[in-house]
């Protein structure tokens, strides 16, 4: 299980930590937030807004991450926005001109996925078997020169089959860039509440908060629902 947190302002990425978690999010998340703030010589009160990944992904991880982010936003009285995890993954390759396909392990023989090109999402967020996804991919890469770029932890379980089915049309991003990262979520979050030059930062963004409506994107229902 991977977790990521980042600090960003309008000018730069201040800090980012990515954690390969063996413990639960609940035991590691708040200590990691405390550490990144201290390392950046900031305090929790210096935060002016929060962006959080909405999923799809681990149901438990999503609940913990979103609940923590909402609690901080409410307690600090700052705005919060949500970014779909697949959008954040695709944003890792925002300058790529090929078809982009982020895939996340959804278990039960399925992957969470969507297709993107030129900064736009072409499909809905899906939970499907790999064969179904590859049919959609093939319909969009008919030209001999067309490529599809895959990233996400789904590569670990599906990479061999993808390569077998698509051959040289499939490109896999390096391990250091293929996982969700908080800096992409933060940058997309900044775009959702753009600042106005004549207002203090917290005030400019206060009307953009999604706190009342923020919900996880499960794609498929959690067990028992």
**DSSP summary, beta strand count:** 11
Strand residues, percent: 15-25%
The CATH architecture of the largest domain can be named as 2-Layer Sandwich
Radius of gyration: 18 Å
- Strand neighbour order, sheet with most strands: 9-6-5-10-11
Please report the number of helical segments.
Answer: 7
Number of domains: 2
- The sequence of SSEs as H and E is EEHEHEHEEEEEHEHEHH
How would you describe the oligomerization state of the chains in this entry? single chain
Distance between the termini: 24 Å
CATH topology term of the largest domain = Nucleotidyltransferase, domain 5
Shape: elongated
Tell me what you see in this structure:
The protein is of the alpha/beta class and 225 residues long. It folds into 2 domains: 112 residues, ATPase, nucleotide binding domain (Nucleotidyltransferase, domain 5), CATH 3.30.420; 80 residues, Nucleotidyltransferase, domain 5 (2-Layer Sandwich). Helices cover 35% and strands 23% of the residues. The strands form 4 sheets. The protein has a 5-stranded mixed sheet, sandwiched between helices. The chain has a two-stranded antiparallel ribbon with strand order 1-2. The protein has a two-stranded parallel ribbon with strand order 3-4. Strand 3, helix 2 and strand 4 form a beta-alpha-beta unit. Helix 1 crosses helix 2 and helix 3 packs across helix 6. The radius of gyration is 18 Å and the shape is elongated. The chain starts with a strand and ends in a 20-residue tail after the last helix.
